[in-house]
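User: I've been trying to design a sequence by hand for this structure and keep getting stuck. Would you show me what you'd pick, starting by listing the structure so we're on the same page?

Assistant: Good idea, let's start from the same input. This is the structure you sent:
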């Protein structure tokens, strides 16, 4: 009897709480969640599933922000439970039960599509597992690439993130030759790509992109990259993310703000060229120049000394000739 009265009072309180103030009031204990699962299907629709541990007292569980539809609560045996919503789909009340509770619902108007990119701005401070469309192998979390390969999803702890991905992203394949071998470089992006070039001597890669704020992922065989490189758009150095997939390729991702010429510069090749220019060649050149200067100086001194001697001899001869004439006149 007391339990019924308590439940009646709780339900009555929920019904009279204004939506604007509902988020400020907690009714019952905070629910202990066993798991939270967010499933994004191939049609980019989101379905959420919470499993809440059983308890002997009422529990309150916060829902994920968004428009909640088709909300249901069952126990692990499939028995439906009373659905009691707090506020404007802010949270649900879970009544005492001997079994774990399963809360499921669809989440609308949170996954946005713009410039060929799906974006989910997500905040839910429980460990959450995301199941994503099977066709995806690459996603971006807080602007960083995450390569999933054949994995179906990922987990996010204390989850606050911006999830981004593209479906059916075009792949541009380029065959290049290096040391008499043929390699395949792949560029994945919705931006237009042209003027692709690979320099065999430096292993630098360049191409022109036409598109703003688009992800551009270049997948390069490890044989064609060094330990370090810089990325430029035009003359401006830009940031990038890179990681190695299964020891065979480097995945390098940039997201330029505007169109332009992208250059992936092998900094190791530049560093290796410097000693050749600054040490060996200059030393030989300087040595040769110093030797030439010494020879020219010596030759100049000899010439000058010879000229001085000749001038002295000529003057002496002139002086002797004048004296003879003067003596003859006397």
């Amino acid at each position: 009897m007391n339990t019924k009265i308590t439940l009646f009072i709780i339900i009555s309180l929920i019904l009279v709480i204004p939506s604007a103030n509902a988020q400020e009031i907690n009714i019952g204990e905070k629910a202990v969640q066993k798991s939270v699962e967010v499933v994004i299907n191939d049609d980019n629709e989101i379905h959420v599933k919470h499993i809440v541990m059983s308890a002997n007292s009422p529990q309150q569980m916060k829902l994920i922000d968004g428009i909640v539809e088709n909300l249901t609560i069952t126990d692990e045996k499939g028995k439906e439970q009373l659905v009691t919503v707090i506020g404007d789909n802010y949270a649900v009340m879970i009544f005492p039960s001997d079994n774990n509770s399963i809360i499921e619902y669809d989440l609308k108007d949170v996954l946005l599509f713009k410039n060929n990119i799906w974006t989910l701005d997500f905040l839910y401070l429980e460990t959450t597992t995301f199941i994503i469309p099977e066709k995806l192998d690459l996603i971006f979390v807080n602007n960083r690439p995450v390569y999933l390969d054949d994995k179906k999803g990922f987990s996010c702890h204390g989850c606050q993130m911006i999830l981004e991905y593209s479906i059916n992203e075009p792949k541009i394949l380029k065959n290049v030759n290096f040391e008499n071998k043929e390699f395949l470089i792949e560029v994945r992006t919705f931006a237009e790509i042209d003027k692709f070039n690979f320099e065999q001597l430096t292993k630098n890669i360049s191409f022109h992109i036409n598109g703003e704020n688009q992800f551009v992922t270049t997948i390069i065989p490890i044989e064609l990259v060094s330990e370090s490189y810089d990325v430029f758009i035009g003359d401006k150095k830009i940031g990038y993310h890179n990681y190695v997939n299964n020891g065979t390729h480097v995945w390098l991702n940039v997201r330029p703000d505007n169109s332009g010429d992208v250059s992936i510069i092998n900094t190791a090749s530049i560093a290796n060229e410097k000693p050749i220019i600054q040490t060996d060649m200059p030393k030989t050149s300087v040595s040769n120049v110093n030797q030439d200067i010494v020879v020219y100086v010596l030759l100049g001194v000899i010439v000058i000394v010879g000229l001085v001697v000749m001038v002295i001899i000529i003057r002496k001869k002139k002086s002797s000739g004048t004296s003879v004439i003067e003596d003859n006149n006397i």
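That's my pick for every position. To get oriented when you compare it with your attempt: The longest helix spans residues 267-329. Residues 28-165 form a domain with the Immunoglobulin-like fold (CATH 2.60.40.3650).
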